Amino acid sequence: MKILLCIILLVFLAACSRTEPQYDEIENYAHEEYEHQEEGINDDIPETTDVTEREPAEGIHGLLSVVTYGDNRAYILGSIHIGREEWFPLTPAAEAAMERADIFAFEIDMAAEGGRCLCDPEDCDCGCDPYYDECACFVMEMMFFPEGETLATFLPQDVFKILMTNLRTFPVNVDAMMNFRPTTLSEVMLYFVIAPSLGLSADYSIDTYVFNRAEELERTTIGLTDFNDHAAFVSGMPEEYQIATARYFTDFDTMLQETEELVLVYENQDIETLRNMVRLGLGEAYELYAAGEITAGGLGLSRYWHYTVGNYRSNFFARQIADLLTQTQEPTTFFVTVGIAHLTREENVFDALREMGFTVEGLY
What's the pLDDT score for residue 191? Predict the structure, then answer.
């Protein structure tokens, strides 16, 4: 797992935002990297049914559900990217599904070993071997400003002052953070400062646990997203989003409280509350706009994130799962892990699969 840290950072940078930032207009955001196959779904897929109602299971179930197509089957589990050791093992249904799985699929291939660098060797200033490790090179360029640029020079002065005021409440060396891009800074604080303060760790994330189980079972692991494509997707976040992230960066105590609340909701498997939390963001943006508390730009970037990034990704993952089921010739059982927000947001993986004609059966 040579590039696990890079993968973690990439996933975190693409995770759902908890801010309502400002942006002048919604840009047309092209996702050529994620072109998917529109054909290949047979017309004879069984009619859709609602998720089966079951008694609540003990332990973490992550909305475990199963989708079948002929002799192929895909178990889908909603994950969270930090966790506690006592969360494991998962609910018996999830553990049994992993035992039955032939292939494990994650948002990104967590077993990736790097490859040709994505950046042009002549333009790559991160000091890596461009033919050895794409992660070391490309992620460094995503995480840090180019030479000569810092938070102080990149951000508007009023935003920089707010960021510095909040950042100084954290137990970190603020000067060491000056070369981080705002999105990286926010996620580094969350996962490497806030999480440990709450007894949480990426080492005990659902994704990491499932990946380790796959290795124990000596199963193949794949990514729903190619690493190169995912890195290109994340790097395409507009500058306005970077500025907005800095503008709404909160203090240590607030971030601590918000993270603890979110993790407890997942820990208690309070899916309805989680569903409401995921879907409230855009609604709150409209309310704030109506009250005159944010600009049309703020509403614009909120819409950009929710629709272009969040909902787009959910539909993309659903299409990839559909392709696995319909295009795998040999009878195969897949165990798929995606962020639980992609199973609960207004456009989610389950609904997208149903719209394609699949039956989604809940096992929780």
Answer: 87
Could you report the per-residue pLDDT of 246-256, keeping only the tens digit for each? 888 889 999 99
pTM for this predicted structure = 0.76
Beta strand ranges found along 172-322 (DSSP E):
220-225
Low-confidence spans in the chain with pLDDT less than 70: 1-58, 111-140, 227-237, 278-282, 294-309
What are the structural domain ranges in the chain?
4-16+45-362
Q: Identify any residues that bridge with 79 across adjacent strands, giving them in sequence order.
A: 339
Question: Which of 315, 314, 320 shows the shortest CA–CA distance to 103?
Answer: 320
pLDDT score at 305: 67
Which CA distances in Å does 337 have to 1, 78, 79?
17, 6, 6
Sheet strand arrangement including 360-362: 220-225, 103-108, 333-339, 72-79, 65-69, 360-362
**Of residues 347, 272, 361, 308, the one with CA closest to residue 93:** 361
In sequence order, which ranges of 217-270 are alpha helices (DSSP H)?
227-235, 239-247, 252-267
Structure-block tokens of residue 50: 């609602």
Angstrom distance (rounded) from CA 121 to CA 69: 45
